[in-house]
């Protein structure tokens, strides 16, 4: 159960776009589409933002999008807003019904 | 309203035991797999355990295997985590989480477990 690799921090100005990468291995991210992304604001529980690589749950703004290339998944936030400032975690299903999270990325909106 | 409410956290000495509970409401609990996810102070998320509906599949993270036991009672819409031989590194917020097609779509507010002498 090796953790997925995310950048520790990213930043952007309001209105800009930012992308957060999540690198796994050939046995997880590149093997299937069970990749999800979570937003966590300080003192709050995480919130599902993207499932199955690129599916947005009801209520999540369209400016949040997900993609995957090989063993790297990405979360892109376009039209950055101040309220997007939070920690973001990727997660993937591994074999035998186990899951692994990335280390988390702190998004700062300048 | 779909809701998960954890309870049972607290301060326990190293080597001690604790039982966490999670009360589910607002959805057909018996049809969903459930999980526990934890977060140590100032750290990232760590998946802990998974239990499918009917309890026919149960899995654990290597860090808790052999010490933690997950169970569910579909009659009372409840999820449990029995934690034995607790260590300082088990100190964390423990979240009860619903699993919907391999993504964690509903989270409780969490319950705090502190392991210290």
Percent range of helical residues of chain B = under 10%
Low-confidence stretches of chain A: none
Number-wise, the strands of chain A total: 9
Question: Which consecutive residue ranges of chain B, at least 5 long each, have pLDDT under 50?
Answer: none
Considering DSSP H and I runs of 4 or more, what fraction of the residues of chain A is helical? Answer: under 10%
N-to-C SSE series of chain B? Answer: EEEEEEEEEEE
Mean pLDDT of chain B: 96
Shape by Cα distribution of chain B? globular
Q: State the oligomer.
A: heterodimer
What distance separates the N and C termini of chain A?
35 Å
- Total helix count of chain B? 0
Defining key terms:
A: 110 residues, mainly beta, B: 117 residues, globular
Question: How would you describe this structure to a colleague?
Answer:
The complex is a heterodimer of chains A (110) and B (117). Chain A is mainly beta and 110 residues long. Chain A has strands at 9-12, 18-23, 35-40, 47-50, 64-69, 72-77, 86-94, 98-101, 105-109. In chain A, the strands form two sheets. In chain A, strands 1, 3, 4, 7, 8 and 9 form a six-stranded mixed β-sheet that branches. In chain A, strands 2-6-5 form a three-stranded antiparallel β-sheet, with no helix packed on it. In chain A, strand 5 and strand 6 form a beta hairpin. Chain A is globular and about 40 Å long. Chain B has 117 residues and is mainly beta. Chain B is 0% helix and 54% strand. Chain B has no helices and eleven strands. Chain B has strands spanning 3-7, 10-12, 18-25, 34-39, 45-51, 58-60, 68-73, 78-83, 92-100, 103-107, 111-115. In chain B, the strands form two sheets. In chain B, strands 2, 4, 5, 6, 9, 10 and 11 form a seven-stranded mixed β-sheet that branches. In chain B, strands 1-3-8-7 form a four-stranded antiparallel β-sheet, with no helix packed on it. In chain B, a hairpin with a 5-residue loop joins strand 4 and strand 5. Chain B is globular. Chain B starts with a strand and ends with a strand. The mean pLDDT of chain B is 96. Classes of the chains: A mainly beta (110), B mainly beta (117).
């Amino acid at each position: 159960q090796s953790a997925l690799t995310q950048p520790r921090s990213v930043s952007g100005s309001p209105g800009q776009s930012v992308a957060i990468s999540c690198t796994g291995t050939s046995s997880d991210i590149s093997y299937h589409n069970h990749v999800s992304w979570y937003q966590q604001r300080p003192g709050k529980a995480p919130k599902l933002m993207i499932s199955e690589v690129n599916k947005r749950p009801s209520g999540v703004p369209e400016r949040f999008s997900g993609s995957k290339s090989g063993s790297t998944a990405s979360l892109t936030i376009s039209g950055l807003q101040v309220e997007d400032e939070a920690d973001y975690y990727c997660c993937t299903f591994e074999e035998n019904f186990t899951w692994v999270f990335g280390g988390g990325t702190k998004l700062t909106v300048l | 309203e779909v809701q998960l409410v954890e309870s049972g956290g607290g301060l326990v000495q190293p080597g001690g035991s604790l039982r966490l509970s999670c009360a589910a409401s607002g959805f057909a609990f018996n049809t969903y797999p459930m999980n526990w996810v934890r977060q140590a102070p100032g750290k990232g998320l760590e998946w802990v355990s998974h239990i499918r509906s009917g309890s026919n599949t149960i899995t654990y993270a290597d860090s808790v295997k052999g010490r933690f036991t997950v169970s569910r009672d579909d009659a009372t819409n409840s999820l449990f985590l029995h934690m034995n031989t607790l260590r300082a590194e088990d100190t964390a917020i423990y979240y009860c989480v619903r699993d919907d097609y391999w993504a964690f779509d509903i989270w409780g507010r969490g319950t705090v477990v502190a392991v210290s002498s």
